[in-house]
Amino acid sequence: MASSTKTLRKIQADPIACCSPVRTSMLDGSDAQILAQSFAALADPIRLTLLSIVASAKGEVCACDLVEPSGRSQPTVSHHMKILVDAGLVSREKRGLWVWYAAVPERLDALRNALR
Amino acid sequence: MASSTKTLRKIQADPIACCSPVRTSMLDGSDAQILAQSFAALADPIRLTLLSIVASAKGEVCACDLVEPSGRSQPTVSHHMKILVDAGLVSREKRGLWVWYAAVPERLDALRNALR
DNA sequence: CGATCGTATCGATGATCGTCGATACGCACC
DNA sequence: GGTGCGTATCGACGATCATCGATACGATCG
Q: What average pLDDT values come out for chain B (116 residues) when binned by 10 residues?
């Protein structure tokens, strides 16, 4: 018996300006925790594929256009997109019956910046 | 050039020049696979901490200086360093009784470059 | 030699993850 | 309201992972 649905906060720190670079200064524990969570979102080939589809598109992409190219079931795609959204790498907007995703380039920039 | 003549372990592809950018073009499956494996090496707070210790140091760091600041046991540190080495992010050299690690900045640059 | 020291591997365990079928939810249109 | 459609959640399963004690490996030194 698990606890009730945990309403965990999306990102524990500012998603854009977080984290000191890996290469120039030593990380403290909480920075490492947040950074690791972000990289974990990229540590799956299906998520990278989904992200590349969304990020390479001009503007938004409909969720319905992600299932077939990823080769995974609809629940699996939804699961992975949620991880990308929770990591702040992708934004989600529901309009009518469809859900539209868009990349958050600032977040990718922040991760790139952490890799120095 | 700059391809090392050392006996590189089994890295599935050229560790420096791999993978097309996420943001501008769509990934194919094998690229996504390799990239995901690299990011998986960064998807753990202990490994990020270890990497930051090695990368922020001038030159090399002795393995014996990694156990205490990471707060993990020696086998665990050895395990994580192996993952970082296998990912090409860190080089390993045994001299006498000690093992010395050094960052591979080209590899970090390659990962940064993939995040576009 | 044999003793000692630093590091890697092994084995086991508990936790987390990726996956998909079934199903619930929410919106639109009749 | 009822029906149909797109998406999210649930439940379960097998696979992978992080962790550490015990131990093996290998180099140094007496």
A: 35 57 80 93 97 93 95 97 97 96 95 91
Contact A27, B52 (CB under 8 A): yes
Instruction: Say yes or no: Cβ of B98 under 7 A from any atom of strand C.
Output: yes
Q: Which residues are paired to B90 by β-bridges?
A: B103
By C-alpha to C1' distance, C27 is nearest to A97
What is the C-alpha to C-alpha distance for residues B46 and B51, in angstroms, rounded to an integer? 8
What does each C-alpha distance from A105 to A8, A9, A15, A87, A115 come to in angstroms? 24, 21, 11, 12, 16
The integer distance in angstroms from the CA atom of B100 to the C1' atom of C4 is: 21
Q: Does B115 contact A at CB distance below 8 Å? A: yes
DSSP H helices in chain B: 29-41, 45-56, 67-70, 74-86, 105-114
